[in-house]
Every structure is written in C-alpha cells, then in structure tokens.
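Write out the 3D structure for:
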Amino acid sequence: MHGLPGSRVSAVLTELGLSDQAAKTALKLTPAAQRRLAFARLLVGQHRLWLLDEPTARTDLDTQELFARLIKQAAANGAAILLTDEDLTWAGKCCTRVVELGDGRVTNTYALESTNDKETPAPERFSPFKVPARKEDRILLYDPSDILYATSRDGKTYLRTNSEEAVTNFTLQELETRLTGRGFFKAHRAYLVNLQHIKAVIQFTRNSYSLQLDDKPQTTIPLSKQSEKDLQELLGYQGQF
C-alpha cells in the first residue's frame, strides 16, 4: 500500500512483538495483540501525523509501556502526535501538552515538564498514585499494584493486600473509576480484582466460576458468568474447559 518492501512488514511486526503471530488472522489475536497490530499498520506507513484514539484501551501493562516508548521515539523523529486517553498517568509518560475536555468543551490546558528534568518536578496530577484506606488509627496509602482486590460488604469497601486488609472511603464503583487503566477488573458485583495477581480461572459447573489469586493462601474470588466472558475476550484465553 505504501510502496515499501515486504521486509518493512517483518521489521515492524518484530518491533511490536508480533513476529511469532504473523500467520494468525486478526480475529484470533488477543485484544492487546489486536491493538499492537493496529499500531503496526501505523508504523509501516511512516506517517508524519498520528491520530490515536485511546490507544491503551484493553491492553496490558507491557503494551502500554511499548506504545509510550514508540510514541516518544516517533515524536523525537519529528512526527506530530495527537491522542485521546482517560489514563492521564500513562499519557503523562509520552505527552508534552494536555487538553482536558468536559461535555465537549475545553476545561483546562497545560504543558507537561520533561520527565528528564530533575530540577523541575512534574505536575502534581502525575505524582505516584495512591489509594487511601484506614486501619485502626492510621491512614494507609496503597500502591495499586500491591492491592490484590477490593470488595464491598456490610456497607463498607475493603482493600486487601498480601499482608493486611483496610477500609477505604471510596465505594467500589468509585474505585473502579479511579483505577481505570491500572489493570483492575470487575469480577463480580462485590469484587474488583487486580489482573496482575490472578493465577487461574476455575470452572466448577457450566455457569459457575472463580478466580484463584497468587497470594500465599491462594484466595478464590467469585467470577460471574458475564464477567468470565468479558475476561475471556480481554485476555484472549479459550472458554469451555
């Protein structure tokens, strides 16, 4: 399509980590791999203007890091890039200017300092994200990656890590919104699970599922039938064990 040699395709697939899946049809790729394929099509053309609509949607952390690196590389080579994304923490890794929209109108706009400029701190909104919770007389601040899951019971929302449990003032729905783009998945109406800590999907009956976590007691979390279908699509594994 772009008058380039076929070797260019192979080179781009390798750069996107797709060379071992080159013989697959796009529909058989995982959602994250499909996103990588779309990015590969962009790279093949060597365009000078990039328009990206939520490029990190339904991708894993490795893909997000890869996209951020490729975007910064393209910008350094002279490409102009405009992207939309809800995850400002991720976007802050590769963007130089942010325009915030609300109800179709510009509500705020500001420049981002270079992450390599150690003398000038990055804007506060891009400081490390923490989830506050209370345990006895202390306010604990959790890194999202340390949270195994959040659950709602008796009108309260609890955060569970490998070592402790604490109560947060956020509802489960509010947590789901705040943790968008950080690898959390609504496994059940009362459980929000960190995908990075899932060890296995267990099927008990045709319509009964659970998630097994990678913590020491190998905690199991209920998984609704619809959520199991969503998880299949998200991670790309085959159902009906």
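The helical segments are 6-15, 31-44, 61-76, 88-91, 172-178, 225-235.
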